[in-house]
């Protein structure tokens, strides 16, 4: 069973408030892929405060990508700006971490822009450090940097 | 990389004061703990006071008190008061060779990572690391290290 439509709308509203970009199509594909109970390797958890969604976290266990043993990727975590500084983000990260631990995962991993010190500080405060993988990228297409 | 002496002294002071919120800590106590010159430390602390990170109270029983927000103040905020960490600009002068420019790119990449690292670690987070180190616990993240 997936998320109720009202919860989906609340999740999209939080993301829109945080990022400033409404991406309904993206979110509906995420709800289809992750918003279904029963797969312990895919986690989509929300923080509920008296019936209102105040935050969410999405993660997935990925095996042997980048030569890495199974690890739990946290690829989205958001807290309603009005509900911050109350430990909601910490509870969400702890909850997803515990679920990954239950399926034997021993590495939690995420990736984010270095231009986002607030969320970087959050992950740091949770004990996360630079990992042994180094992200690399290349601008491609017209005007892209060619080696 | 190595931090300059002033940055290091500032971090010693900030972490000591922040670990004892509300308490007045004599500068001499910090200087003694780290085996540093009290005179040099005093100069650094006066910069921190000027920046509003600590306040000093003179007289008997005086000392320094942490006044910033430990959950917001980052290592970068402190270090930048004493040394420039801005990303190395690419070598663009006319005399710069292709090697200079290419090396400039590499150094800028390193600088950007350094800035992001210092900018993402708050004083509150650093105090947790200090506590773990004092207790002889594993480094943060060690529990989740990949099995190789």
Task: Give a written overview of the molecule.
The complex is a heterodimer of chains A (147) and B (148). Chain A has 4 helices and 4 strands. Chain A is an alpha+beta fold. Chain A has a single domain, classed as Gcn5-related N-acetyltransferase (GNAT) (Aminopeptidase), CATH 3.40.630. A 4-stranded mixed beta sheet of chain A has the order 1-2-3-4, sandwiched between helices. In chain A, strand 2 and strand 3 form a beta hairpin. Chain B is elongated, with a radius of gyration of 19 Å. Chain B is mainly alpha-helical and 148 residues long. The C terminus of chain B is likely disordered. Chain B has a two-stranded antiparallel ribbon with strand order 1-2. Chain B has a domain of 94 residues: Orthogonal Bundle (Arc Repressor Mutant, subunit A), CATH 1.10.10.
Estimate the helix proportion of chain A, in percent: 25-40%
Biggest sheet features of chain B: 2 strands, antiparallel
CATH architecture of chain A: 3-Layer(aba) Sandwich
Q: Which quaternary structure do these chains form?
A: heterodimer
What is the terminal-to-terminal distance of chain B?
28 Å
What is the CATH H-level superfamily of one domain in chain B?
Winged helix-like DNA-binding domain superfamily/Winged helix DNA-binding domain
- The rounded Rg of chain A comes to 16 Å
Strand percentage of chain A: 15-25%
The number of helical runs of chain A is 4
Which regions of chain B contain 5 or more consecutive residues with pLDDT less than 50? 142-148
According to CATH, what is the class of one domain in chain B? Mainly Alpha
Structural class of chain A: alpha+beta
Indicate the proportion of strand residues of chain B. 5-15%
The largest β sheet of chain A comes out as: 4 strands, mixed
Précis, in short:
By secondary structure, chain A is of the alpha+beta class. Chain A has helices at residues 5-19, 24-34, 88-102, 117-125; strands spanning 42-49, 52-62, 71-79, 108-109. Chain B has a domain at 5-82 and 122-137: Winged helix-like DNA-binding domain superfamily/Winged helix DNA-binding domain (Arc Repressor Mutant, subunit A, Orthogonal Bundle), CATH 1.10.10.10.
């Amino acid at each position: 069973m997936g998320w109720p439509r009202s919860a989906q709308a609340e999740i999209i509203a939080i993301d829109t408030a945080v990022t400033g970009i409404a991406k309904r199509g993206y979110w509906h594909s995420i709800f289809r892929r992750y918003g279904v109970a029963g797969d312990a390797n895919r986690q989509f958890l929300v923080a509920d405060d008296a019936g209102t969604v105040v935050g969410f976290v999405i993660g997935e266990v990925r095996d042997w990508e980048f030569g890495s043993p199974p690890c739990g990727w946290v690829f989205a975590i958001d807290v309603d700006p009005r509900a911050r500084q109350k430990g909601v983000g910490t509870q969400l990260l702890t909850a997803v971490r515990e679920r990954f631990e239950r399926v034997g995962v021993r590495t939690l991993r995420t990736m984010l822009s270095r231009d986002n010190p607030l969320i970087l500080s959050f992950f740091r405060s949770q004990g996360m450090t630079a990992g042994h993988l180094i992200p690399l990228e290349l601008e491609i297409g017209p005007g892209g940097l060619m080696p | 990389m190595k931090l300059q002496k002033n940055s290091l002294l500032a971090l010693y002071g900030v972490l000591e004061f922040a670990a004892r919120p509300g308490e007045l800590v004599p500068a001499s106590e910090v200087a003694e703990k780290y085996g540093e010159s009290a005179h040099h430390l005093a100069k650094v602390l006066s910069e921190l006071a000027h920046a509003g990170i600590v306040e000093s109270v003179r007289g008997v029983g005086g000392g320094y008190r942490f006044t910033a927000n430990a959950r917001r103040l980052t290592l970068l905020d402190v270090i930048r008061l004493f040394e420039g960490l801005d990303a190395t600009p690419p070598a663009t002068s006319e005399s710069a060779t292709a090697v200079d420019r290419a090396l400039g790119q590499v150094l800028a990449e390193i600088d950007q990572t350094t800035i992001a690292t210092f900018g993402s670690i708050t004083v509150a987070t650093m105090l947790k690391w200090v506590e773990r180190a004092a207790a002889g616990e594993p480094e943060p993240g060690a529990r989740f290290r990949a099995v190789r």
